[in-house]
Amino acid sequence: MKVNVFWFRRDLRLNDNRGLFEALKSEYPVLPLFIFDRNILDDLEADDARVTFIHNQLSGMREQLSALDKGFWVEHGSPEAVWENLLQEFDVQAVFCNHDYEPYAQKREQMVIKLLKGKGAVLHTFKDQVIFEKEEILSGAGKPYTVYTPYSKKWKESLRQSHLTYYNCEALWDNFLPKSQVPRSFPSLGQMNFKVSSQIFPSDSPKEQTIRVYDQYRNFPAQPGTTRIGIHLRFGTISIRQLAKKAIELNEVYLKELIWREFYMQILWNFPHVVEGPFRKQYERVPWVHDEEAFEKWKQGKTGFPIVDAGMRELNETGYMHNRVRMITASFLVKDLLINWQWGESYFAEKLLDFELSSNNGGWQWAAGSGTDAAPYFRIFNPESQMKKFDPKLVYVRKWVPEFGTPLYPAPMVNHKTARENTLKVYKEALGN
Q1: pLDDT tens digits for range 261-312
Q2: Does residue 260 have an active-site annotation?
Q3: Of 111, 239, 284, 289, which has the highest C-beta tally within 10 A?
Q4: Active site residue 257
Q5: Is the pTM for the entire model greater than 0.85?
Q6: Could you say which of 288, 316, 350, 422 is catalytic?
Q7: DSSP per residue over 348-402, as a string?
Q8: 7 assigned to active site
């Protein structure tokens, strides 16, 4: 039987999914496929909660299709081996998927294109995880924006109703392959050498009221003022188009945060060197301090700076950290301890449930001053004043650092004023101005 394949990657939903919609409209029945990629999994800890999150989502999707007597193939292994096997099992005419902008995903895609070409099949890809991508938002000179504010303005000017289209996949679910014709493979977490996580995942349906008052409460980590929707955007369990619609209706500041996400995605696409080093090459000259002991104290939340320690402990325990506190902890590592921002970037990548390469990289480069801001290395957060401003009653601090104010709590590991002056001196000498 001739089939088309829809390759799920970071778009784990059966409705309002652009690539899936195009596949289901096509001439041949659709085999849905997800691959637990060994090349990614091998770098993760056995208790990584993100694998449980993905597995849970796939289980729900599989059950949904099974109720309609439709199949869903979930495999585990090397993508190349899985695809070679699939192309022997099925007469594949075309593969459909949604764009993924990360370097490894691009490399993997090229491998699949090569295999398909050998079988006379083609790969069709579509935009789904953003409203605007790649070179869709350009300056008057026809170049990618490297500053957020003009990008954001052009993004809003360019937006049309067509960009928020709802793709009704549900109406086409009949075009999935029957269950009897789909391999029954669905590896358990244990078979993949992962443990079932007890982590509680945030809802994929943000409260409208939270978005409505987002601008008032988003900076206060003790308050439930954010939607915690990051993990769902990361794995595509919700549609960015539907979320953007809500943001447009309810809160301009919330919409700007969604635009920040797309800004960093187009930075990653147009300037892929940011994955390996600073956006601004001259920042390679900064002589970082390679202090493993200090880095360990930062990771464990034992720096003696309560707001920093609270953030790191929240991250370690829950896989989440409030965005304001992400900026504070990042600034402390880079600007107080003068430790390479890439160390912090890697640690956040390991721990954050909502880890997104482009946003994580952009945020850390923003903190380090090496990113897209014009003259940003002077920006150094004072952990004490940040705490007084955004956690004045110490509700957040006391939740995560219960020993604060007792002899058990460590003294500050550095003097912030002295560390700040030293960092400014080091940066100035390194950058030559």
Answers
A1: 999 999 999 999 999 999 999 999 999 999 999 999 999 999 999 999 999 9
A2: yes
A3: 239
A4: yes
A5: yes
A6: 288
A7: HHHH-TT--HHHHHHHHHHHHT-SSSSS-TT----HHHHHHHHSTT-HHHHHH-T
A8: no
